[in-house]
Amino acid sequence: LELFVRTTLRELLVYLVFLVDICLLTYGMTSSSTYYYTKAMTDLFVNTASQSGVKFQSISTMADFWTYAQGPLLDGLYWTKWYNNQSMDNGDRSFIYYENMLLGVPRMRQIKILNNSCKVHNDFEDEITGCFDVYNDKKEDDLSFGLINGSAWTYHTEKEIKGSSHWGLLTTYSGSGYYQDLSRTKEESAIKLKELVDNLWLDRGTRVAFIDFSTYNANINMFCVIRLVVEFPATGGAISSYQIRTVRLIRYITTWDYFILGCEMVFCLFILYYIVEEILELRIHKFSYFKSIWNILDIIVIMLAIVAIVFNIFRTVKVDKLLGKLLEHPQIYADFEFLAFWQTQYNNMNAVNLFFAWIKVFKYISFNKTMTQLSSTLGRCAKDILGFAIMFFIVFFAYAQLGYLLFGTEVESFSTFVKCIFTQFRIILGDFDYDAIDRANRVLGPIYFVTYVFFVFFVLLNMFLAIINDTYSEVKEELSSQKDELQFTDIIKQSYMKTFTKLKLKKEKISDVQKALRSGSGEIEFRDFRETLKEMGHADHEISAAFSRFDRDGNQILDEDEQERMKIELEEKRVSELPFSPHESLTKQVVQLESSVDGITSRIDLIMEKLGLQQKAKGNQTAGKLTVTNHDVRMEPGLRYSKTLNALNALSFKWKT
């Protein structure tokens, strides 16, 4: 067991180095500036209102969309003057907030649905001439319309424009559609937008419109990839959302960046080391290897790390190519959406990997008694919790369906089944809007709320806590009655004790040699030196080694200079050694135990003397059986007292020894 603990401790030290390395490379490329960059862009493009008061988040019609696009959007994209109306000498380049360069040109894209993609009921065929279904990629309109010519009026596939799908609030949209690239100046972009408005670019078939552009801040070496989305559902109206990804795509510029590069190389070596280690363990343990949760965790960490390493290389190469193309053709749209998306996934992978890496620390501290209690509690009550979870989620999902059907048409937090699930978790935590439920259904709303809180919060959750509490009490009671196993703290204490014991012995040897030097006068011969130290209990090889070290001329005699050098070195070593008395507390306990034993021994002797006197007195009375009237018990006095004396004599001898 001790060997196993020491091996685990050694593995822990290696793993801590790996953990520090992964923390450095994860946090090294993260900055609080990311948040402020995102906030600045959000305030400019999302929270800025037009002269008529239309903000991006308040867009509810197609007219509001064009009001925003021709107002706050153009004003935010093109900065041509300072705050005192003095022109900025940047040519045709725009620097948003004077610091963030607009990369390439912005792009507007829409996806349309075919007319008659749904069927109108027979009763309304005469009044309703067209039917545009909810979005479905199989029902996309791919026909040219409007001015016919130009990218804004011609359909382009996802492959042609190298687009990517988008997960909106209503559904997931493809990367195809009709697009219009704006210009590098505000005036030309305004003309293009007016042309789109005049020729009815957005119509009943439009299901979503995207506005994409990217900026770069050289001060903090950050890219900001912005996508503004306005969905036009089949119900009418408009739903706006946005996606702002602030990422670091160019990695290695400063000295700190190259330090992180070094950490990444060390990380790759660690991953290679752990891959070899896991392969060897897999060869030894075969399929039983997968029975350990820690081995599964190791595989997850290694797989995530490999994917992150591959993407890191891919991202570096791809960004260089994209920036080179953008510098050659500044009039094109800079599509950083794909890279920004995968950079975000890369950051997410690193975050999850770091989380699992910290969780793995529990593997190495499982020898701690507290951790043993927690892990044993969770392991033992796992089956009970699983059975409870089945019962809990049956009730929970039943209430979720009830809430969706009762309030889904009026309350946003119950508008979808998934939202109902999260809303009910929020109710458990005390975060809910009871008034909205009551307004949606004045009769069933209160009944739903009261019964849900009673059964789920007061009954089921308390049952869950009771399962864990009972199991924890059982585990704690069992561990308290078991013999303590060797723990990490014991190993550290043992190493500490051994180290200082050696220091104490070494100090005593130094003192003996100093006494031998003081006992001599003038020159000291080896024979005298040896005899003095032999009397103090030192071995011949120790004496010979100490003497020959300072006997420079090898004449078996220490002259005054050699003795002086020996004294100086021995004094330095003696002073450098720390005083150590590891057995003082133990000695005190032994003394206390001896005093207690002496008291017990004296009492036993007194009892034996009294029993001896009683035996003599009883021997003078009638021999044979003695009848005890009060208890109606017969016994033989000789047998009784002889056994008692023998037992006390044995006990007395044991305590005395």
From TrEMBL:
Membrane topology category: Multi-pass membrane protein
Transmembrane segments: 12-30, 258-276, 296-314, 385-407, 447-468
GO terms, biological process: detection of mechanical stimulus
Residue ranges occupied by any Polycystin cation channel PKD1/PKD2 domain in the UniProt entry: 251-475
Gene3D superfamilies registered for this protein in UniProt: 1.10.287.70, EF-hand, Voltage-gated potassium channels. Chain C
SUPFAM superfamilies cross-referenced by the UniProt entry: EF-hand, Voltage-gated potassium channels
Polycystin domain location: 56-250
Disulphide bonds in the chain: C118-C131
InterPro entries membership: EF-hand-dom_pair (IPR011992), PKD1_2_channel (IPR013122), PKD_2 (IPR003915), Polycystin (IPR051223), Polycystin_dom (IPR046791), Volt_channel_dom_sf (IPR027359)
Protein location: Cell projection, Cilium membrane
Residues that coordinate or bind Ca(2+): D551, D553, E562
CC per GO annotation: ciliary membrane
Annotated GO MF terms: calcium channel activity; calcium ion binding; calcium-activated potassium channel activity; muscle alpha-actinin binding; sodium channel activity
Keywords from the named record: Calcium, Calcium channel, Calcium transport, Cell membrane, Cell projection, Coiled coil, Disulfide bond, Glycoprotein, Ion channel, Ion transport, Membrane, Metal-binding, Transmembrane, Transmembrane helix, Transport
A Pfam family recorded for this sequence: PKD_channel
Family of the protein in this entry: Belongs to the polycystin family.
The protein's name: Polycystin 2 like 1, transient receptor potential cation channel
Originating organism: Sparus aurata
